[in-house]
Amino acid sequence: MQNKQVSTTVGFICLLLILLPLEYFCAGLAFETLGELSSGFYYLLLIVLNMVPVVLFIFKKRTAGFVLVFLIGLLIIPWQLKLGYRLLLLKEESANMVNFAYEYQLEHGSFPKDVSEYTFKYEGLKKHLHYYYSEHDRSFQVTYWVGTRTTSHFYRPEIDKWCYYPD
Predict the structure, then answer these.
(1) Residue 87: which pLDDT band, with cuts at 50, 70 and 90?
(2) What are 118-150's pLDDT values in tens digits?
(3) pTM of the predicted model as reported, rounded to 2 decimal places
(4) 64-80: buried (b, 16+ CB within 10 Å) or exposed (e) per residue?
(5) In what order do the strands lie in the sheet with 161-165?
(6) Selected residue with higher pLDDT from 70 and 92
(7) Mean pLDDT score, 24-31
């Protein structure tokens, strides 16, 4: 009986040691994919929700503790990893679009008014990327969003770097 209790405790601690860092990483990733507020919410979930299975485990509700800690991980980790992967693809696609605009400028003397001639590497990301041309400034902006439209990443030649607009 004592050995089973020790192995159950060790298993629970190992599960926490695996899932908590992953959840923490995902909460940080949420800053880039969903914004400041969502990231803060993820950190709050990480702390508050994970206390519940620990309390259950301490009060001999071991199965409920195991199940709950696993479900919390399933709630947070897969979705953020999916958004993180989308973020990587969008960074590549948007950089390609910026390069296209600069190459177009070299060939034609001005930035393109649209990107109808641009060939997407990841067609499925079209709805997440936007190209704006300003006739007034004769400049452009490439913007992308990952998990919510209210959080975006953008590039402008006048700034010459990528910027982030949260929430």
Answers:
(1) very high
(2) 999 999 999 999 999 998 988 999 999 999 888
(3) 0.85
(4) ebbebbeebbeebbeeb
(5) 129-134, 139-145, 152-156, 161-165
(6) 92
(7) 92
For the chain, which residues make up each domain, given as ranges? 2-82, 86-165
Tokens of 9: 């405790």
Q: What single-letter amino acid sits at 15?
A: L
Amino acid identity at 163: C
Task: Give the integer Cα–Cα distance in Å for 12 and 124.
Answer: 40
Euclidean distance between CA atoms 22 and 28, whole angstroms: 10
Place of tokens 């990107």: 115
